[in-house]
Amino acid sequence: MSFDEVTNKPERLSSQRPDNTAFTQQRLPAWTPLLSAGLVLPFVFLAGLAFIGIGIGLNYSSNNITECEYDYTGAQSGDSCFECASTLNASNPCSCNITLNITQQFKGPVFMYYELSNFYQNHYRYMISKDDKQLGGILYNLKNPANECSPYLFDFAGKPFAPCGVIANSMFNDSFKLYYKDNGKEVDVPLVGKGISWWTDYNVKFRNPTNGNQTLSEIFQGTAKPLNWMKAAYDLSDDPFNNGFINEDFIVWMRTAALPTFRKLYRRIETGNFTSGLLPGEYILKINYNYPVLSFGGRKKVVFSSVSWMGGKNPFLGIAYLVFGSLCTFVSFIMLIVYIKYQEKSNDINL
């Protein structure tokens, strides 16, 4: 390497120099828009009108969704589930009935949710209290859960919990059956529990462990069910494809909510005589009351809702679009007034 005689710095070799092209020497032509008032104001105004139009459409769609909810907490004397709420314990399962009077037809498919309030699933220690590898079907983690599950790692006998952690232990375990009263007869309304979870959760994130030709119950031998569960994970359902860590009720619960009042999908009503929706009339909702909420001041509701192209009832999204679109339109008018006045002053100065 040679040195420059004046600066005593090493000269750059010709092989290290970039080619003398428009791209390497940054001589490519470029276009830079001039953001004048004549360009910006129409854009802001049209954007505001577009947002207002979308907001009106979303708001109209949300208002056309039929929804009804029923509180079955049983916090007060005289409520249908008051006796179950006041005498609830693990060794004494209780059931109660609620009469539902539906005055207008629910267009199918109808979605059935359970709603909990004052339940903070967004607490940091709660959210991390799980073992993703165990839930993903890793056989080693089935009996060696991660420390994040503490204090729900092992039971008093030293057996590992499967699944481990606070989220799994607090899983919602009320169950429902719905009947339609037709001329004094109770007609069973089929509640479909297949496909209520996210596709990615059911097919990718949650998997059952495998070990040769062993059955699921054999694989789970040596583990303990969570303290608040009535059944072991491999025995949650009569459907062998809906047991263990791929039980959809379990998967729905494990996706934690961001707010203290939340709804989770329980079932869909879209088969049998109710394919077109719920007919007007009287229904009986039979509830197996197992989940305690009065200890932390919570409430429990069951919600029936129809859906549209935008999903369930959500007035917030339409209102947000309307507010933002109105602000854009208002700001464009203010900017236009300022621009006109500024132009008048500029003309006076030039004269």
**Strand portion, in percent?**
15-25%
Average pLDDT confidence is 88
Can you summarize the main beta sheet? 4 strands, antiparallel
Structure summary, number of beta strands? 10
Order of helices and strands: HEHEEEHHHHEEHHHEEEEH
List unreliable stretches of 5+ residues.
none
Q: Major sheet: order of its strands?
A: 1-10-4-7
Overall helicity = 25-40%
Shape: extended
Distance between the termini: 66 Å
| Gyration radius over CA | 31 Å
Q: What this model shows, in words?
A:
It is a single chain. This protein is of the alpha+beta class. The chain has 10 helices and 10 strands. It has helices at residues 37-63, 82-86, 124-127, 132-135, 139-143, 166-169, 199-205, 216-219, 248-254, 315-350, and strands at residues 67-71, 94-102, 106-107, 110-117, 175-182, 185-189, 262-269, 277-278, 281-289, 299-305. It has a 4-stranded antiparallel β-sheet. A 4-stranded antiparallel β-sheet has the order 2-9-5-6, with no helix packed on it. A two-stranded antiparallel sheet has the order 3-8. Strand 5 (175-182) and strand 6 (185-189) form a beta hairpin. Helix 1 (37-63) runs antiparallel to helix 10. The protein starts with 36 loop residues before the first helix and ends with a helix. The model has no long low-confidence stretch (mean pLDDT 88).
